[in-house]
């Protein structure tokens, strides 16, 4: 495990292009970069979201993201990993999360990026509250997210060729 | 002294984000602390009965029989929904 890990939990917005440049500087020699950007969905059927609020556990959220990123570095051959998650009040279309991974070959970057998102969604202490105009409600955890994360327990580690 | 933190919906149900308790029992477990907190009133009894709650000690997720020592930070929170 030699790759670099960058983790940030922040209220401010981020620039995916800038984060990708920084990722590639941290992991030079990469032949592949995979990234995921999560956004605030503004519509659900006829409903329109007014805002979303993300609560976190200061200290543990950062540590948990670092742990997940480090686990990815142990499982796949990666040059660098970066995870940025926003907290506080967000509006429809706003960025929520960015995960970037770079590697020599695409398989490692792809798999590690998906692994990090699946683990982040089921392990990192972050909670969403939404206001759809008819009041505020906490988002319920989904069993399907738990199942997605479980797949990584049994699946083979990434190809290194 | 044990610091106890509550997050998200649980924090709202309890109307409490943090507590400081003196470590009266030398062999307190997470489950024991939970039972103790449930004695604080109806809202506490109902909210802390939720079996889906997660507990962390010193920012690491633990199981119910985990021991708690003086100076520990204990957190209870609902299933997470970030990402």
Described by the principal axes of the CA atoms, the overall outline of chain A is: globular
Q: Please, how many helices of chain A?
A: 4
Number of helices of chain B: 3
Q: Structural class of chain B, please?
A: alpha+beta
Walk across the major sheet of chain B and give the strand order.
2-1-7-4-5
Oligomer: heterodimer
Distance between the first and last residues' Cα of chain B:
34 Å
Relative helix content of chain B: 25-40%
* Sheet with most strands of chain A: 4 strands, mixed
What's the SSE pattern of chain B? EHEEHHEEEE
Q: How many distinct beta strands of chain A?
A: 10
β-sheet strand percentage of chain A: 25-35%
User: How far apart are the termini of chain A?
Assistant: 16 Å
Mean pLDDT of chain B: 95
β-strand percent of chain B reads 25-35%
Uncertain parts of chain B: none
Most extensive contact? A-B, 27 and 16 residues
Question: Which radius of gyration of chain A do the C-alpha atoms yield?
Answer: 16 Å
Largest sheet of chain B: 5 strands, mixed
Explain what the structure shows.
The complex is a heterodimer of chains A (161) and B (83). Chain A is α+β, with helices and mostly antiparallel strands. Chain A has four helices and ten strands, in the order βαββββαβββαββα. Chain A has helices at 16-26, 60-75, 106-123, 143-154, and strands at residues 4-10, 32-39, 43-44, 47-48, 51-56, 80-86, 88-90, 95-103, 126-131, 136-138. In chain A, the strands form three sheets. In chain A, strands 1-6-8-2 form a four-stranded mixed β-sheet, with helices on both faces. Chain A is globular, with a radius of gyration of 16 Å. By secondary structure, chain B is of the alpha+beta class. Chain B is built from three helices and seven strands, in the order βαββααββββ. In chain B, the strands form two sheets. Chain B has a five-stranded mixed β-sheet. Chain B has a two-stranded antiparallel sheet with strand order 3-6. In chain B, β4 (54-57) and β5 form a beta hairpin. At the A-B interface, β5, α2, α3 and β9 of A face loops of B.
